[in-house]
Each structure stands twice: as C-alpha cells, then as structure tokens.
Write a structure and sequence with these properties.
The protein is 66% helix and 17% strand. By secondary structure, the chain is α+β, with helices and mostly antiparallel strands. The longest helix has 68 residues.
Length: 432
C-alpha cells in the first residue's frame, strides 16, 4: 500500500508540473499549419502547379536554339573527270565548319496553346482548392485531438477530486473505527474504493500522455514535447441553418472542387477539338558555313552566311486518336456534372444532419450543466450527512460516482458542441 501511494504521489506531482505550460487552440493550429507533413506536401503541389501555369510554360514564348559543328576527313581519292582524265590524291583533307542560331514561333495552333494555358491555370486553382481542403481537414483533426486531450485532462482532474474525497472518507472510517463508532468493513470498503480511484487515475494519466503524443504528431513536432491544454471553450453566436445552407452551395470545398473539375473537363474538350484546326509556324535563323576542300574538288574553299526565314502551314485532316479523345472528353465532362449533382445532394444531407446534431449538442450541454449543479448540491449534502453518520458509506460512494460522471458528461457535452459547431462551419465553407 505504501509503494502504491508513493507511485501515485509521483504521478500527482508530475501532473502539477505539466499545468505550468499551456498550449492554446490558436497556437496549436498555427503550429500545425506550419509543420504538418500532409500540408507541406499540399503546398508543394500548389507550387508545382504555379510553375506549370507560368508564362514560360504557356506556349506564347518563342523557341530559340543555337548549333555549331565541325567535320574533318583525311582520305585517298581517285577522281575520273568528264573529259576522261583522272587524278589521284593521297591524304585529301576536307574541313567544314558551321554555326547557326534559330528562332521558331507558333503563330497560330488552332487555339490549343490558349486552352492549354487556361487548363494550366485551372490546375493551379485546383491545387489551391486541394491545399485549402487539406487545411480544413487538419483543422478538424486538431480540434478533435485537442478537445479529446482537454476532456481527458478534466477526467484526470475529476479523478483527482475523487481520490481526495475517498482519502477523506478512509480517514473518517479509520477514526470512527478507532473510537468504536464504525466497523472494520466500512474501513475496508473505503480503502478498496480509494485503491480503485487511484488505479483509474494512473490509467487516465497514461491515456492523457498518449493523447499528448498523438496531438504532437499532428502538429508535426517532437512527440515528447510536454505541454498542457486550455479546457475553456468559446462558442460562436448560434448559427442559422439557412445561412449555412446558402453558404455551403457557394463555398463548400467539395462543391468548389467539383465545379473546378467540370471547368477542366470543358477545357480538355476544347483542347482536343482544337487539334483539327490549322497550325502556322514561323521560323528565322542566321547561319554560317565554311569548308576547306582538297584539290579534287571544284572549289578549294567555300563560305556562306546569312538569314533564312520560313513559314509553315499544316492541317490535321484526320486523326483517329484525336477523335477518340473528343468522345471520351465529352463522357468525362458528363460524369463530372453528375458528380457535382451528387456532391450537392450529399452536402444538403450532411448540413441538415450536422445542424440537427448541433442543436442536440446545445440542448445536451444545457442539460448536463443543470445536471452537474444538481449533483454538486447533492454531493455537498451527502458529504455533510455522511459526516454526521446519517447515511451509509454505500450512499456516499454512489453520490461521489454520480458527481464524477456528471462532471465528465458536462465536459464531454461542452466539447461535443464545439466540434459540432466546427463541422457545421466546415460544411458551410466558413472554416478557413
């Protein structure tokens, strides 16, 4: 018994030390938005989409290339001329040099370039929406983890109060037994209840530490970081159902993603159709060539340089794969529209369900707060009557358990209402 109380005292001292450092919800969200691994990936995906949507990838800039070369040959040549004379040269050396710079620009490509650039911009917007979705998911996860931890903290505190009351009860039972006013059975029952409360406290404290590590993992920081949480909760003014419904139709992230996918499907269809329009490409280059020839050649040396201009026109008369892509693009666009309708119907269901849960959570909190007041009053009277010997230890224990449950239920109802509020804000597109 002495060893058990020594271990329990050590845990209690640790819990007091933890209370010196507090991590607020706002701080937790700020840390998560900075360090969370999934969010870092989402931000990098947005950065990649931003690069692809840039001017250099738009197709509106010319392509410029530079080239240079040198050729050397050393051959033995036998040459027969038209007048039937012949000549032979051993070690006939030929040298040639060239250099050029060429610019090519697509003047018109059937609007493929235009629609492709718009598609890249659309993918950038999609990446931003996906990043926002990740932020919202992280916020919900942080709220859940934070409030689970806050609830567990209050459970630990309530168990600590139980231990204090059970210790007081055991001391009273010991004094009554000493002066002949109580029984050994009352003392043993009090000791058993104290041991049970102590075991529950140690296990709850273990769960508290586990939840801290879980939250640290979500925050993207060292899981061993020690901290405390704030158990106070601030609620927004009562949310209006119609306002949430109207906001959800315009701002809900799932609706925005579905709308963006339809836009990308339209652009993809336009790109495939544009493949059948004509293409005009202009080019210009400056070239220099020089060669040194052997005596068997008509010219011993040759040099040329100057500007070359070109204009090419092409027309895709028939392309079976392009025609196939047009057909599949139409079907894909139709599927995206069906998905949007499905998302809207699901969203309406989710908002109505969430709002009903929100209303029930409001009622539950009010009811649990009233229940807590009643149980606190009941325990105060029970404790006084127990001290006077007017009720049994069993009745005292039942009042103690009722108060413990009422405190936990009130705390749980408080956090459940906040989570219901946050989820409703997310559905309405109002969380970020």
């Amino acid at each position: 018994m002495l060893i058990f109380r020594t271990v329990l005292f050590s845990v209690l001292c640790t819990s007091v030390a933890i209370a010196q450092k507090t991590l607020t919800m706002d701080e937790a969200l700020a840390i998560a938005l900075k360090n969370n691994y999934d969010l870092k990936i989402a931000k990098n995906n947005t950065a990649l989409a931003n690069i692809e949507a840039g001017t250099l990838n738009s197709g509106y800039v010319p392509k410029v290339t530079a080239a240079a070369g040198v050729n050397y040959s050393d051959e033995n040549q036998n040459v027969l001329f038209l007048d039937e004379t012949t000549t032979s040269v051993n070690g006939a050396v030929t040298e040639s040099y060239n250099a050029s710079i060429t610019a090519e620009y697509v003047i018109f490509d059937g609007l493929v370039r235009k629609f492709t650039h718009q598609n890249n911009q659309g993918n950038l917007n999609l990446a931003k929406l996906q990043e926002r979705q990740q932020i919202e998911n992280n916020i919900i996860s942080i709220y859940n983890a934070y409030f689970n931890l806050a609830l567990q903290k209050q459970v630990v505190e309530n168990l600590k109060r139980n231990i204090e009351n059970s210790t007081d009860r055991l001391d009273r039972a010991g004094r009554k037994l000493k002066y002949g006013q109580g029984t050994k059975l009352d003392q043993l029952n009090a000791e058993v209840d104290l041991n049970n409360d102590s075991i529950s406290y140690v296990e709850a404290f273990r769960d508290l530490n586990n939840l801290k590590r879980d939250l640290n993992l979500l925050l993207g920081r060292n899981v061993a970081t020690d901290f405390n949480v704030d158990t106070t909760v601030t609620f927004k003014p009562v949310l209006d159902k119609q306002f949430i419904l109207e906001s959800a139709e315009k701002e809900n992230i799932q609706v925005l993603l579905a709308d963006q996918n339809i836009l990308l499907s339209d652009l993809n269809l336009k790109i495939n159709r544009a493949q059948f329009l004509h293409k005009v490409i202009g080019s210009g280059s400056y070239r220099w060539n020089e060669s040194q020839n052997p005596p068997t050649s008509f010219a011993l040396a040759n040099e040329s340089y100057g500007i070359n201009l070109g204009l090419n026109l092409s027309w895709n008369i028939f392309d079976g794969s392009a025609a196939t892509r047009i057909k599949t693009s139409k079907i894909t666009r139709e599927n995206r529209k069906i998905e949007l309708n499905k998302v809207k119907e699901q969203l309406l269901t989710d908002v109505l369900n969430a709002y009903e849960s929100y209303q029930i959570a409001q009622y539950s909190l009010q009811a649990e707060e009233n229940n807590l007041k009643i149980n606190e009053l009941n325990f105060t009277r029970t404790k006084r009557e127990y001290a006077l010997g007017q009720i049994t230890s069993v009745e005292f224990r039942q009042a103690q358990i009722n108060l413990f449950n009422a405190r936990n239920n009130q705390a749980r109802a408080k956090y459940d209402l906040k989570i219901a509020e946050v989820q409703l804000l997310q559905l309405g597109g109002l969380l970020v």
